[in-house]
Amino acid sequence: MKASLAEMRVFVALAEHGHFTRAAERLGMSQSSFSASLVKLEKQLGTRLFDRHTRACRVTEAGAALLPAARRLVADWDHLFADARDFARFSRGRVAVAAPSAQCALLLPPVIRAFGASHPGVRVVVQDVPEHEVQELVRSGVADLGIATQTDARTDLVSTAMSSDEFIAALPPSHPLASRRSLEWAQLAREPLIGYLPGNPVRRMLEEKLAERGIVLAYAYEIALPWTMIGLAREGLGIAVVTMALRPLAQWNGLEIRAVGRPQFARTMTLLRAPGNSLSPAAAAFRELLLGSAVPAA
Question: Rounded to an integer, what distance in angstroms lies between the CA atom of residue 224 and that of residue 247?
Fold first, then answer.
């Protein structure tokens, strides 16, 4: 049989103390068990490690040559367990989250700040990507968690409803429709609009709901990034059709926010994780904090 870690500990402890009784006490072993472990190790190695003198001893030449490697083995094992304990209590670790740019900029920062205050040793990695890339990053394991719009498309990922995100119109204060407290989709259909690119999950969901009511929106600008949408609306180039998640950005740019429609349409934001892979303790804690900070989905 190969030497065990316990026998290596006996070797190192006796070399450091030079006395059987003190070394055994250090490891919490009986004198007989300690001596038996040393004899077993020497038989397995085929060499004497110590010259005995009553209860004291001295390391042999062979023992001195093997001692540095034994110390490294014991230290590496102790470090492994210390690292594992650190990860279990979040003293160290890494959490990767994939999300569209709006969520990365407006939803995640306060959650990351709160998480960092209680888990300063855990690094949070933000994957700022187009929404259609979120699922693949989670599926491949690059991201522990992903934030995306709930759709009817089937997915192999575990999805948890996180928040409800209503559609709104963002328009400059000088726009004639800004005097109204709320707007209707039929009104917006007569205006030049600024919206997401065709195929974007948010736009696709809205178009499907409006089609049920026979309403088609006319887009003057079709944009990938929300910052560009808000910038165009700020200059009076159209009304931006966005969701409530962008309300802070629109208000920072001096735009008016108006609810649209009766009933109002809303998308559901979901939190994604890969099936079959348990989250690390740090990732699980971040997930719970993120779900707790979100506005409940309707």
Answer: 17
User: What pTM value is reported for the model?
Assistant: 0.67
Amino acid at the residue 286: F
In angstroms, the CA 62 to CA 52 distance is 14
Torsion of Cα atoms, 131 then 135 then 141 then 147, to 10°: 60
Nearest to 196 by CA among 227, 175, 237: 227
pLDDT over 60 at 1, yes or no: no
Give pLDDT, residue 295. Answer: 57
| DSSP label of 279 | P
Using alpha carbons, list the distances in angstroms from residue 282 to 125, 144, 188, 247. 12, 10, 45, 30
Which alpha helices (DSSP H) does 18-60 contain, by range? 20-27, 31-45
Cβ proximity of 224 and 199 under 8 Å: no
Residue 257 and residue 245 in contact, taking contact as beta carbons nearer than 8 Å: no
pLDDT in tens, 163-213: 888 999 999 999 999 999 999 999 999 999 999 999 888 898 899 999 999
